[in-house]
Amino acid sequence: MKAHEIYNAIDPALVTQMLDWFREHDKNVYRSALSSLAQSRKLRLVFVQKKPLVDQYAWILKTLKSKQSDTIGEHLLQVWLMAGNQEMLANFCDAMEIEHDGKGSVTGDLPESMDSAALDNAVDQLVGDFDPKLVTLYLQVFNLQRPGGWDALSKKLEEDERLVLA
């Protein structure tokens, strides 16, 4: 799944949660994303900034659903997950025996393949500890880190009824 496909499938409440996090913890990323998205639509930033917050969020989500916003959309997801959801990322890396910095940022090479049994256990643990929609989002974004993703992870995302974005 590409970033724009994720945004087309995602629960809008999760996008609101992400945008709220940026406005509270990293306003520069929020402003930069807003500016980049406005430029991609050939709009002046002030046009978007004058909208009420609810309308800004709706406009951002609508724009992120576009294929041309894939790079910006993927970057936003990665930054939010890496900075705002470190415990979940670290738990996944630990369960999958992937080297990381203690905060879920991979320090070694990404695995060539994933063991299905280990993946099942990791997903069971994550779904038990975190919002399943957030877990699904993370796994979808993680699967983007390798061209074509991982077969076991792609299959898990397709078949596990707990792993839905909306």
- The assigned structural class equals mainly alpha
What is the typical, i.e. mean, pLDDT? 94
Poorly predicted runs are none
* Oligomer state of the chains in this structure: single chain
How many helices does DSSP assign? 10
Helix content: 55-70%
- Provide the gyration radius in Å: 16 Å
Q: How many runs of DSSP E, i.e. beta strands?
A: 0
Question: Which overall shape is indicated by the principal axes computed on the Cα atoms?
Answer: elongated
Number of domains: 2
End-to-end distance: 14 Å
Order of helices and strands: HHHHHHHHHH
Strand proportion: under 5%
Main pleated-sheet profile: none
Task: Provide an overview of this structure.
The structure is a single chain. The chain is mainly α and about 170 residues long. The chain has ten helices and no strands. The protein has two domains: about 5-70, no CATH class; about 85-160, no CATH class. The chain has helices at about 5-10, 10-25, 25-40, 45-50, 55-65, 70-85, 85-95, 115-130, 130-145, 150-160. The model has no long low-confidence stretch (mean pLDDT about 95).
Compact overview of the structure:
This protein has 166 residues and is mostly helical. The protein contains ten helices and no strands.
